[in-house]
Design brief:
Chain lengths: 315, 312
């Protein structure tokens, strides 16, 4: 019988190589498969993080590479935590976080509840509602400045249409009191569908039999809503809040394009402030300490929250 | 269909439908406005009050893709014949086309970096997800959580050392640098999503393949990968969309050769004030592909945005 090329090649292969191809142990494969991912994440996330922590104890400035780097201990941290501007930034971030979450939870849940009544073509409209959240926040944020223009903007004219005020009389992104709401509105427009989708999944996970049982026991609709719907959807809702919370704490692209942090410092969220310190004033050491504080805050708050979430899930 | 006491009444269903459709219309309005503005002339785009009905014009698109110079008065009196339709549109504004603008390049950069990072991310992510799904990797849960936690860091916070590192390695403002960076950013998403998809494939298929004499690696490529194809495809689209939309790293680490479209589009300006039709045209071309992908993805959307935490 003529040996096929493959068999001949197989016989020509040196024994150790053949053994390796044939018999890679599961453990070896596991490591070969996982290693590149871990390596890349270490190189692009953990290594920079350690570097940031190191820099945070120095007075290093990127734009002055020849100056001696001095170790100044915790002075950067001290300066940040006692800086009134930083606290104002934190307040702006808190305002943005709280209001976006409140509005998105209320509107998102209401929408999900309405969609769950399964009217005709509800799937189609769900897809339509979801569109904004998948788009580029920077590009959309930039266009919202156009919608917010006092005379020519669509938003001002829509408000004028419903309330009768002069569309040229107010500027959403130019006014110190309105600007914080301008970013809340744009973010709510963009991310309400996210909360809606998660709530919808929660509502659909409730078996109809529970409602049927409640109906047999003559529980009112109101009662059913508060004792069945809300508790069953709560874990889902809390998950949505976790995601939105982390994302909006990091918020940069949408707001920086929409208001650039202005007017004054009214919409300067922490990420925007950090970017200014690091890449405009080039205070690298100071900005590194700032970054560490933010990271510890997100991580701390998120882990406390996840504990609470797990408790709700267990109930 | 069987009747159930818990079904909402036709009237409440109708009210729900109308409310949702109304919300959808309002939410869609800014998007439609972007598309419409792209087809307005610059005068119509800043009309007071805003024009809903207008004469469509391709000026925005011409301005987006070209750089133009003003024609002097005498040249205007004896213009050389306009050869192309876009030259004619520019002439009507008293301008002459000088050359292509940067938008084309930036868009191509977005495509190269988006697809490059998605490809790399899928190769690494599928392998890691398979290993986490099927083998007893030591500290598996800790490693999975570590992978997820990389997503919690504000991009600006890691940008400082990445900026320094890239400068040292000569990766600042290069395609390769951005591809590696976006791959790392998206790995958490791809590993988590793909692990979910691979977990759903019964182990018995592979065991049968192994008994038939396949090696582990063959079982992975010939049995698991085809089974996970839908999951891999939808994960890939998610990675592509995130890389496509990314702004913070792009604006900090790129300026010329590797700049993507999101940092570029807001910088489009016209003569005397912002050229909104050109901005809108650029945004439309950039956003519409994502809208199409979103519609294709709608079944897996929830899973993707929650990193596989909610599967429906």
């Amino acid at each position: 019988m003529v040996k096929s090329t493959i068999t001949r090649a197989a016989h020509a292969t040196p024994e150790p190589v053949a053994a390796r191809v044939r018999g890679l142990s599961d453990r070896a494969i596991a490591w070969i498969f996982v290693a590149p991912t871990l390596f890349l994440l270490l190189a692009v996330n953990i290594f920079p993080l350690i570097w940031t922590i190191r820099l945070s104890f120095t007075n290093y400035r990127v734009n002055r590479p020849n100056r001696d780097i001095e170790w100044i201990g915790l002075r950067n941290y001290e300066r940040i935590l006692t800086d009134a501007d930083v606290w104002q930034t934190m307040q702006a971030t808190a305002h943005f976080l709280i209001w976006t979450i409140v509005l998105q939870v209320l509107i998102g849940f209401a929408l999900a509840w309405l969609i769950n009544s399964k009217f005709r073509s509800s799937n189609f409209w769900t897809t339509v509602i979801v569109l904004p959240m998948m788009l580029s926040p920077a590009v959309v944020g930039n266009f919202w400045t156009f919608l917010y223009q006092p005379q020519i903007g669509l938003f001002n004219h829509a408000v004028a249409f419903f309330t009768g005020v002069d569309p040229a009389s107010f500027s959403m992104i130019g006014d110190v009191h309105l600007a914080p709401w301008a970013i809340v509105i744009a973010d709510t427009w963009m991310w309400t569908p996210f909360v809606m989708l998660i709530c919808l999944a929660g509502l659909r996970s409730i078996p109809a039999s529970i409602y049927e049982a409640a109906e047999c026991d003559r529980a009112s609709k109101w009662r059913q809503f508060w004792t069945i719907t809300v508790p069953m959807v709560l874990p889902f809702l809390m998950l949505a809040v976790l995601f939105r919370g982390i994302e909006n704490f990091k918020m940069f692209d949408l707001v920086v394009q929409l208001t650039g942090g202005g007017p004054g410092n009214t919409t300067t969220l922490t990420s925007i402030d950090l970017k200014r310190e690091a890449f405009e004033r080039w205070r690298t050491g100071y900005a590194s300490a700032y970054a560490v504080i933010l990271f510890v805050t997100v991580f701390g708050l998120a882990s406390i929250y996840v504990k609470a979430l797990n408790k709700v899930k267990e109930r | 269909m069987s009747y159930s006491v818990t079904d909402p009444s036709p009237l409440s269903r109708w009210i729900a439908g109308v409310t949702v459709v109304l919300y959808a219309m309002i939410t869609l309005l800014p998007l439609l406005w972007i598309i419409a503005t792209g087809f307005k002339s610059p005068e119509d785009s800043i009309a007071y009050p805003p024009k809903v009905i207008f004469e469509p014009s391709l000026e925005g698109y011409v301005n987006l893709f070209t750089t133009r110079t003003r024609i002097s008065e005498e040249e205007q009196a004896t213009p050389p014949p306009a050869e192309t339709w876009y030259e004619r549109i520019a002439r009507e504004q008293g301008q002459s086309i000088a050359g292509p603008s940067r938008y084309g390049e930036r868009f191509v950069n977005s495509v190269i970096i988006g697809f490059g990072s998605t490809f790399l991310c899928m190769v690494l992510g599928t392998a890691a997800a398979y290993a986490f799904s099927r083998f007893r990797v030591p500290l598996r849960d800790d490693l999975m959580f570590f992978i997820l936690s990389t997503r919690m860091m504000p991009p600006i916070a890691v940008a400082i050392p990445i900026f320094l590192m890239f400068r040292q390695l000569g990766l600042n403002d290069t395609h390769l640098g951005m591809i590696l960076l976006y791959t790392a950013v998206n790995l958490s998403l791809s590993v988590w999503l793909l692990k979910g998809f691979i977990d759903e494939i019964p182990v018995e298929y592979e065991e049968a393949a192994l008994i038939d004499g396949y090696t582990r690696f063959q079982a992975f490529t010939k049995v698991v990968l085809p089974q996970a194809a839908t999951g891999i495809a939808s994960t890939a689209i998610f990675c592509l969309i995130f890389a496509w939309n990314e702004y913070a790293f792009a604006v900090l680490l790129t300026s010329g050769t590797a700049q993507t479209a999101p940092p570029f589009i807001p910088t489009i300006i016209g003569v005397g004030g912002k050229d909104w039709p050109a901005v809108a045209a650029g945004a439309t071309i950039f956003l519409v592909p994502v809208m199409v992908f979103t519609i294709l993805l709608r079944k897996h959307l929830l899973r993707g945005i929650t990193f596989g935490a909610v599967r429906k």
